[in-house]
Amino acid sequence: MNAVVQTLPLIEPATLLDSPVPITVAYGDGIGPEIMKASLKVLEVAGARLAIENIAIGEGVYLAGDSAGIEASAWDSLRQTKVFYKAPITTPQGGGYKSLNVTVRKSLGLFANVRPCVAYAPFVATKHPKMDVVIVRENEEDLYAGIEHRHSDEVYQCLKLITRPGCEKIVRYAFEYALANGRKKVTCFTKDNIMKMTDGLFHKVFDEIGAEYPAIEQEHWIVDIGAAKLADTPEVFDVIVMPNLYGDILSDVAAQIAGSVGLAGSANIGAHAAMFEAIHGSAPRLAGKDKANPSGLLLAGVMMMQHVGQSAVAESVHNAWLCTIEDGVHTYDIYKLGFSTQLVGTQAFADAVIARLGRTPSRLLPVSYDKAAKPIELPVYAPRPPARKELVGVDVFVHWAGHDPDLLALRLAPVVPRGIDLQVITNRGVKVWPNGLPETFCTDHWRCRFVMDQGLAGNNTMVAHFLLRLATAGLDVVKTENLYLFDGERGFSLAQGQ
Ligand code: NAD
Q1: Which is more confident, 378 or 239?
Q2: Does 283 sit in the ligand 1 pocket, CB within 6 Å?
Q3: Model pLDDT for residues 235-273, shown as the tens digit of each residue
């Protein structure tokens, strides 16, 4: 039996009754301060017991010269409270500023991004009145590793990293979330028909872990048709788990088609900490106008109150919010003649929710939170025994401004040592040598695949010497990738057309 790790910070209920829970709050940029003020006011009047530490993040910090957008001292607060209630921030354009959200999520190991997208028909206009989907997005990996390089005049690269522990954590979290929240089905979206190794691993882990949850219906969709189906008939989905990029894009789509991107909150959950935020950004054009909808941040606050063990407050605020929506008291983004009764600004909306505390909705389904709910627990990742890894070749990427791959092959021929063979040359992944098609468009970035004779397999020094020979011969090697077999299984994809 594996040891277990809490996916939520351990907060003793007995302590909660006596003393406020420390949380870190950032008011953010743009509409951030307005919606944070409104949301905290509702939570406090509803009886939230919180000890708030404020930190500065975002535009001001960036422009003061910190490219991460967060001061060193803010990390101390986050690591101490382990709970971050964060308003949206503005990332200045250009200038090498790193996304603060990605930094916080990854630095604190917040691997699961949970985004409920719910329709509130007939009170908020939507084409999908029955929609009630929770998107569980992997939060730390994929193209968001942020590892990008320029290789040549024409070619730029972004690395997509998918790991087994990352897949296991997020997929198991999705199933556990479904169990804990009475959800019936978990769907997985990937593009493993194209990215057979990276998305292929995500899908494989989904099947492996899914087998441990026979009571939950499960299915996999290729992300393109899955996304089309989500936009068309979202009511057929329940929980959807996906890698980072697809989850980022599709959770905005899902929130918007449910009614408004301004309505959705999200939780970022890790083993050591959690962050709660609206899914929308800082909407700078709305800033200072008291027009923004605070609902996304307020509903994120509801998730936070559950997380810190104050479920009664979460339930009371959520039901009062549903009453407000049901009564047609709406901010401009969801205000619609025939649906709404009163157009209000940010602070008046918060006051309307406060006025309804203690009430339950009569037409929308009231929420009821389990006061004894336990945090979701995940097993500590158990690494598998290492595979037998054998070096069998190397992909050498060359920046070369020529056009005829036959000429490149001729140039390489005298440099290639005995025991190593040039197997194929590709351009943007498609085979152009030997026997390429003249129609294939080529850029200045050539992948030359060299395979080693069996007797040389595993010989790393041989590869290093070979690279030296290529450099000495004046070839502009911009990148190499070793080719390995793992327990005899190919650890690299074949070229398109190979
Ligand atoms: P945005 O989500 O801030 O706004 C897009 C549009 O959506 C707005 O113009 C507005 O019409 C509407 N909208 C958003 N939130 C609303 C609300 N609460 N009430 C009513 N309408 C609302 O997206 P953007 O304009 O692309 O980004 C603005 C800034 O926000 C950028 O600097 C971006 O980097 C940042 N951003 C931050 C976060 C975050 O902090 N979590 C997330 C996304 C974007």
Answers
A1: 239
A2: yes
A3: 999 999 999 999 999 999 999 999 888 899 999 999 989
Locate 165 and state its tokens.
């522990």
- Closest-CA residue, ligand 1 atom 40, reads 88
90 lines ligand 1 (CB under 6 A): yes
- Ligand 1 close to Cβ of residue 346 (< 6 A): no
- What are the structural domains of the chain? 1-92+100-108+265-368 (3.40.718.10), 127-258 (3.40.718.10), 389-490 (3.30.70.1570)
The tens digit of pLDDT for each residue in 132-189 reads 999 999 999 999 888 999 999 999 999 999 999 999 999 999 999 999 999 999 999 9
Provide φ and ψ at 49, rounded to 5°: -100, 95
292 lines ligand 1 (CB under 6 A): yes
Which candidate, 98, 25, 14, 19, places its Cα nearest to that of 301? 25
DSSP 333: T
- E-strand ranges in 198-297 read 217-222, 239-242, 265-269, 274-278
CA of 7 to the centre of ligand 1 (A): 29
| Ligand 1 in reach of 282 Cβ (< 6 A) | yes
DSSP category for residue 446? E
Strand partners, 25: 54, 85
